[in-house]
Write a structure and sequence with these properties.
The protein has 200 residues and is of the alpha+beta class. The chain is 26% helix and 34% strand.
């Protein structure tokens, strides 16, 4: 797969990074995790089940190329604030907040893939009565897990590892089965995990 375009984005503090725009490839099994979740959320919204959205990335555009009005291209931008998590919304009166990540490892999920401020954010949501969790896809295993924030926090408090082993997901996480529609019915797992009104 070839890189078609490279632009620059500056992180807070002036750090510049190049952003590569890759063509989407659907030839492999399934779709990217983000696409699957977005399709699922659209299903929830269309059927008045829940209202959960992907958070916009907070960026400030500093350089744009205008070859024509219809073909404006962002050449340089920077993140105005560190992002928190990917998705948030409301389901059955409860606030939902989660981060979604993919890994090509077959044995573990590297903690380098999630920032400390994101973990703290998930912990804060949990402490204040919301429902927060991770959705982690092991691409080469074709498995997608939901892991509650409280289990993530427990792991970090009791382990010194730099990655979460697969067997931890197998013990404490729950596999989200892929379906046609909704693609990844993660709210079914929320119903199971939290019981009460969620089980109705």
């Amino acid at each position: 797969m070839s890189i078609t375009k490279q632009n620059k984005i500056n992180y807070p503090g002036g750090t510049k990074v190049k952003v590569s725009k890759l063509p989407t490839n659907y030839s492999n099994r399934g779709m990217a995790l983000e696409d699957d979740i977005n399709l699922t959320n659209n299903y929830y919204i269309d059927n008045d089940i829940a209202y959960i959205y992907k958070k916009p990335t907070p960026i400030k555009i500093t350089k744009v190329d205008y070859p024509s009005r219809q073909k404006a291209v962002i050449k340089e931008a920077f993140f105005t604030t560190p992002s928190t998590t990917d998705y948030n919304g409301i389901y059955k009166g409860k606030y939902i907040d989660f981060e979604a990540k993919e890994t090509n490892s077959k044995s573990s999920f590297s903690l380098a893939n999630i920032h400390k401020h994101q973990i703290k954010h998930l912990e804060n949501i949990y402490r204040h009565g919301g429902i927060s969790f991770l959705i982690i896809r092991f691409n080469k295993l074709n498995k997608t897990y939901l892991l509650k924030a409280e289990d993530l926090i427990s792991f970090l408090e009791n382990e010194k590892r730099k990655s979460i082993p697969l067997d931890f997901f197998e013990k404490y996480g729950i596999i989200i089965e892929e379906k046609y529609n909704p693609r990844l019915d993660y709210l079914k797992i929320i119903d199971f995990l939290y019981g009460g009104s969620y089980g109705k």
